[in-house]
Amino acid sequence: MSTIAIHDTHHDHHDHGHHKETFLTKYIFSQDHKMIAKQFLITGIIMAVIAMGLSILFRIQLAWPDKSFPFLETFLGKWAEGGRIKPDFYLALVTIHGTIMVFFVLTAGLSGTFSNLLIPLQLGARDMASPFLNMLSYWFFFMACAIMMGSFFVQTGPASAGWTVYPPLSALPKAVTGSGLGMTLWLISMVLFVASSLMGGINYVSTVLNMRTKGMDLWKMPLTIWAFFLTAILGILSFPVLVAGVVLLIFDRSFGTSFYLSDIVFGTQILPNEGGSPILWQHLFWFLGHPEVYIVIMPALGISSEVISVNARKPIFGYHAMVYSLIGITVLSFIVWGHHMFVTGMNPLLGGVFMITTLIIAVPSAVKTFNYLATLWRGNIRFTPAMLFAIGLVSFFISGGLTGIFLGNASLDINLHDTYFVVAHFHLVMGSAAIFGMLAGVYHWYPKMFGRMMNAKLGYLHFWLTFISAYLVFFPLHFLGLDGVPRRYYVFTEFEFMRKWLTVNVFVTWAAILGALAQVAFLWNFFYSIFKGKKAPQNPWEANTLEWTTPVEHLHGNWPGEIPTVYRWPYDYSKPGHDEDFIPQTIPFSQTMSSNLPHDFEGNEEAERIQREWDAQNPPAEQKAPLH
Amino acid sequence: MSLIKVIGNKKTVVLTALSTAFASVSVFAQETAVTATTTANTPEAKVDMDAIYKSVIFYSLIFLSFCLFVAIVGRAIRIYELTREVQGKPAAINWNKVNASLFALFLLIGLYGVYWEYTVHGSMLLPDASSEHGRKIDEMFNLTLIITTIVFIVTHILLFAFAYFYKHSAKRRAYFYPHNNTIEKIWTIAPALVLTVLVLMGFLTWRSIFYKTEDPNNKALQVEVISEQFAWQIRYPGSDGIVGDRNYKLTTGANVLGIDFKDKNSRDDQMADELWLPVNKPVKVILGSKDVIHSFYLPHFRVQLNTVPGMRTYFEFTPTVTTQQMKEKMNDPAFEYVLLCSKICGQGHYNMQKRVRVVTEQEYAEWIKQQPEWLNDDLRKAFNLPASAKPVTAAPAAAADTTAKDSTTNQPKAATI
Amino acid sequence: MVTSLPKQTGNYDMKPKKFIVWLFVVSSTIMFGGWTSYYLVFSGSKGKGHGLVLPDVFIYSTLVLLASSVCLFLASRARHKSTSLQKRYLLLTILLGLVFAYLQYSAWAQMSLGGAYFINNNAGISMIYVFTLFHSLHIIAGLGLIISAFFGAGKVSAERNGYRMEIASIFWHFIDILWIYLYVFLLLNR
Ligand code: HEM
Ligand SMILES: [Cu+2]
Ligand SMILES: [Cu+2]
After folding, report:
1. Which ranges does the record mark as transmembrane (chain C) (predicted)?
2. What pLDDT is attached to residue B253?
3. CATH: 1.10.10.10, 3.20.20.70, 1.10.10.60, 1.20.120.80. Which one for C19-188?
């Protein structure tokens, strides 16, 4: 108690001392977690738009491989001479698209935004453990983005070895032009990005463990926080391995070591490297890479848990099971990386082991899905745009998770690996589901971020167009994969059996263009509402969590007075006996005598006794107004 | 007042929209002029370029007018709602109902869409596997497909039906139901059991594919396939049935694979333009790569394995259907099996193919006799081999132990020049 | 900004920040874990390790690093008694740290003279350089922390002083243990 009070005095002092915040400290080098969240979000949105644009470019190539589009030459210059994208540039587009989407949008944009925004707000903290590291984290991320985009302006083009950058392809400029300077920039960008993620993740973990407000024990944390917390742990434990791998790749590329290279001949030119093994890169990469896909999806799952519960006006079903399944996913995701390498020729025994662990990880995922369904059951569902996106997420998570069961089966993966089936799988489960989680978060916490509401009707339009087009784009791709069409192919015209998919490709491209244009509704809504949106009330969704107890106007330190104390879990929605259909976490049980349940007291006998006495005096037949 | 403001805003929107449209029109117009002059003399460049420009403009205009339409409709709805509000009437449009109905509609159309996909696109897939293990894989696939489809349909029906039936109503309250341990246990254990079955079957299939017990009466045919940007090289073992050593350091213009002819087993190795395989005979492909990682992918046989520089990988399988039979079965005289590269390997990745033919044993025997040897006179000289030495004593193929040698062939020997 | 706060608040900020250092230690350990597992898989699949007799300098550098850790420990203990003693020990720690860095460098020189270059067809040997290089980068960071503690001693509040000392200690002892781990690892996996 005393520490909090002391901190409050500090806080006032601090505010007075910094009345004249300059533009620079307020918007650029801000150390305030809410501003940093917005920085992450807006950078993430910009990167997402760029990556989406890249995908439209290569979708055009796939749909109309024989046509030329002179306007492409206008945009891309020598990369699209004669209006046709060149094969190596096609690969560059795919690579940068994947990298931006996975790392910059779905890792930094998603975790960065919502962990920063919500961890202090939902836990009742004034700011992050280290606001300075937090600021640094954003700026490293920004530099990573800038460098990655910069690689479009080097003569040999951006990295083009796929987002997994397998050596030797990525190690040797001779193998593909993108492995020249472009790849160097990719690696530098990645190191900065990992540094940013680590600074962020370390901060989040430390904040969650040390800076919760009074009463906020771990089992009272909203599932969002659980998800961000476990995501951050995953990041801390897996990103360093990516750095380790990247450093070795840098040495191989720039200094001539042989960590990943051996026995390589181009035509008749024999390279001096000897003794390395390219497979080792894959191990190091996927030791990060698989946790990475959960780093991407877990925050989205956390967000949708919160959004679904709030808008179904129902407690999330099986809160503990939800947490345990997140923990299960966290732990298991470290021992499944080999499922990306079933057909590399590694020891088949290992393949068997990884198959088992992979299919085990599907169990917690299934539990989460069923719990979402059970939460919706007999709810009183308000279809805010956020809720629509959360339901969309559940749908995609099911669809994509089920295809994971095919891929996780090593025998089936023999024929599916590196085909369009994999593309369809991860775009549903990671691409669409995580993006939908992110959008749900944006719609839900927009009032908290900008103090204004987004336009709901545009939100509906945005959702329906996006939802439909995402399925139209990715569902048919499964079938290409099942027909044996490999991914990362520049055209399908060279093989007789692929020609029949050309019409499907045209269809998919149109669907993708529809989906991309639908984002205009979002972008307009987002940026317009920042300035002109309806002013937000303090608790627009009637939610229980702490962030809605802060004033609409942002201030350093979040709460003007003392930080509120937390008394209950965050999911008391539609509790029988209470007059409203939500009870914020800050309401003590003494104010809700009519709705308290025995297990609310967690074995506190004194409280139980008081409740019993109260119950005896107030027979449930006539529901009285809650006593004080 | 605010309405007027907004309408004013609308005007600016329209203006900007139109001006962008004009701007793009003029840009594209210039564009056409430029390209028309530069590419006038290349005959095929004139392909309906104008049409493309027109369509670009056309589509952007459509999009802009659609935006306009959306804006107007949005405005209309807003005004309508405001008037209702002013008149004190209840809200005109119940958006919860709208969205709930849309979910229901989406479910129905979606189910039909899935059905359509399964039947239409589902019938365009690879034919049944043409290899022994491939059939097992197909069986597993079908089982998994059935299970996952059921789960997919059921969960989606639940999801969207709940969305439809439990839409918001001011009269109702949600059912406070925070947990139920029994149910949760059930739906933890049920998927676990199903997955256990799948894992077990998958594991057994996997083992049967990669742990082959050698049948002495039906020894596998060894074939080496080496990938490079962007082609495949094929090496048949010759009469001794053994593919000889390779050492990348020996690579020269004449010896593109770096075959080590010091190894007697190499001397009779043959090259081939196509991958011919005798039907119903196990074949063990030995995979390697010269430059980057590629992937040896035979979709019709359910075979895929990466080719990695500095590493030898093996895949053993038994083709069961000849090309000829396949042509008849598919009713497609042009049908051919293909070998493709499925690991990103550079700009030619999309076109790294080889024809694969499965033939009868006799056809194979005929064909293999005509294939040239890798070892030619120049190479003989380079390796100090007698110029016209007879092929190494043709050891009967059956006698040669094909697997025992693998460990030795594995070790590239130091270069000796 | 934080430094200008009244001194009671130092306590409040400290725990989470110290925790941050611990988390950094964890992730750094994992990075080296990545390399050592690379090394293990590499040597396992090739059937050979770096195959060198490690230069003796490493023994001396290990001793120097250990000594520096002891000094730092003494400095921590001394800070309640006398600032000048604390500063003297800190200075000694810094010096020993620098000596360590120099010794590592001379080990490289010695290895190169013996023909075991960084650019090597035995990735195991290259890996020794990677280990030592990145460990040395940690040394530099650690020296930075100790120097900040050195200049803070006697100037900043006792609380902040203790806080800086603690952070420097966590990190420096970690580097120490990390080096011993790496050295033993290299000795065992020839
Ligand atoms: C039910 C759980 C899941 C299972 C069993 C599963 C299984 C797999 C397997 C086996 C692969 C490798 C396929 C191949 O390359 O041949 C794969 C690829 C992939 N998965 Fe999943 N997955 C699951 C969930 C997820 C989730 C939740 C995400 C992301 C949030 C995800 C993202 C990806 C991505 C990005 C790839 C492609 C990597 C690449 O580029 O090669 N998966 N999945
Ligand atoms: Cu994975
Ligand atoms: Cu290839």
Report:
1. 20-42, 57-77, 89-108, 128-153, 165-188
2. 84
3. 1.20.120.80
